[in-house]
Amino acid sequence: MTNKDTYRFQVNLSGMINILSNHLYSNPRVFLREVMQNGVDAVTARTQIEPDHTGHIHIELTGDITNRTLIIEDNGIGLTEEDIHEFLAQIGQSSKRGEAAFTGETSFIGRFGIGLLSCFMVSDEIVMVTRSAKGGPTLEWRGQPDGTYSIRKLDTELSPGTKVYLRCKPGSEMYFDPEYLAEGLYYYGALLPYPITLQYGEQSKVINDQRPVWLHEPELARSHRDEVLDFGERLMGERFKDFIPLRTSSGRTGGIAFVLPHSVNLNAKRSHQVYLKSMLVSDKAENILPDWAFFVKCLIWTDELQPTASREHFYEDEKLQQVREELGDSIRSELMRMADYDSDRLQHIIQLHVLSMKALATEDEQFYRIIHRWLPFETTFGRRTLGEMLKEHDTIYFTLTLDEYRQITHVAAAQALLVVNGGYIYDAELMSALPLVNDAVSTNRLMPEDVSLSFVDLTPDERRAYYELTRTADTALQRFRCQIQLKRFKPSELPALFTLSKESSELRSLEAAKEVSTDTLSSILGSLGSAMEQSAYSTLYLNLDNPVVSKIFMPGNEAMMVVAVEMLYVNALMMGHYPMNRQELATLNQGILRFIELGLSAGGSGEAR
Ligand SMILES: Nc1ncnc2c1ncn2[C@@H]1O[C@H](COP(=O)(O)OP(=O)(O)OP(=O)(O)O)[C@@H](O)[C@H]1O
């Protein structure tokens, strides 16, 4: 070795094939996509120099189950010996990139110069017999997975084009099964522009026999409803009932958004089937539609997006962003069109996919304005659409959280107060924004304290009569930092209502943390908590209209009253789904035992009598 020697990297081809098959491609079946794509690209290249050329791709399966060979033949541009050395023998080299490099526009599907290697996943040798449309002899190229290849001139003079021979390697038999093959070819090539025929024995069939008119004019899909739904079922394996045509302003991306016939989870990942230059490149494209559009599954064809090397995703670039927005616009405008011309259909979609619709309404005021009357919400009167609510109310109250809603739901319902539960995702946001899209309505956030204000106060006489008892009850609940208010309210079946201030809610969480933390942490939490204690009060409203409460507050029941009020307090906590601390749990246990004991002794004395 001298001071400076230059060496060439060696590529370990079998290592590369392993990487491709195990890490780049999701399934060895993609070799079908790669060979079909090479055939289509070769035909495209030939039509660039011979515009009248009629391309086709013929695929033949030969041999019996133990010895199958697949032959993929195209009448495309073919390869000269020079092309072979340059493009076939150099991994990463492609005749299809031209000046455009990896990310530019090209009329070809391929660009990376690695696709052919995927054939080694199913075959131990790739044999290519080719003759260039530019002239020259027929050549046979044999490539091996160890990185060696040979070329030989053949005496026969074939017409220009290429035949690729793949002999099934042990373990790959399923990929050479005639039915599996037909399915795979259809899966990737259903929309390809040149006829693809598959021949097996005597049987020969055209794989992409349907070229629906609406593929290039998605708007026409509306007048071919059944055909579109059949097509969707065949390609996506699911029967849909409705769809929305898609198209970007450039006209270079279009498709069909099939409306899912069932509700979907907000977090469900929705993947779409995307065809790049008519070849299926991905059935898992997730980033091609806006987030709110999780109620559709799409077939999308494009010739303007850049695939990644696995060809199963697209580069997240400005173009993709624009396409995503415009596809979203297609869906949005179709829904808005339905509001005018097909409102039953829109209402059906809203009922099934209310979360998607609400997500979009939070993003788009105009959309919200048009569809708001059909959006349903949970209210103290049951599930109601905004349209139904607006008929009777010009002010709509809503809570911000589920907890607040739980606290007031009984009382609000009993007082015929319509309150929307804003605890579900998007609902509080939509309620706040409602007056912006409908100026005939105002919305107000309701706090549990606001509802309690509509309680009826005791008369001055009653207040005097109950003063001492209320004070005793209040003192009993001091240790829980809860104050008592004796009121009358509806419904009379409701003995107590518990409201929690923001501070006392925070203090409860702090205390819950303190109970399960280490000494040091617990003392820090303790000092934090003591700072809040002053303001952290909850209130237990007791309903004097309730027969049990009025009995508790009868003179002579003082001893039982404290236990009963404590029990009403812990019961109110349970009703509001608040976690209880140790002290409250102990109170609950003691209270239950006390009542059992009382019941037993009352029963016992009954028997004795
Ligand atoms: N059927 C064919 N007819 C003519 N040329 C072919 C054919 N198949 C492959 N080639 C040549 O071999 C080159 C390498 O093919 P390969 O499939 O590996 O990559 P690619 O198609 O260029 O890019 P990608 O990796 O994106 O598919 C091609 O660029 C093309 O020049």
TrEMBL record:
One Pfam entry name: HATPase_c_3
Keywords carried by this UniProt record: ATP-binding, Chaperone, Nucleotide-binding
InterPro entries per record: HATPase_C_sf, Hsp90_fam, Hsp90_N, Ribosomal_Su5_D2-typ_SF
UniProt keyword Disulfide bond, yes or no: no
ATP-binding among keywords: yes
Family: Belongs to the heat shock protein 90 family.
Protein name as catalogued: Molecular chaperone HtpG
Lineage, broadest ranks: Bacteria, Bacillati, Bacillota, Bacilli, Bacillales
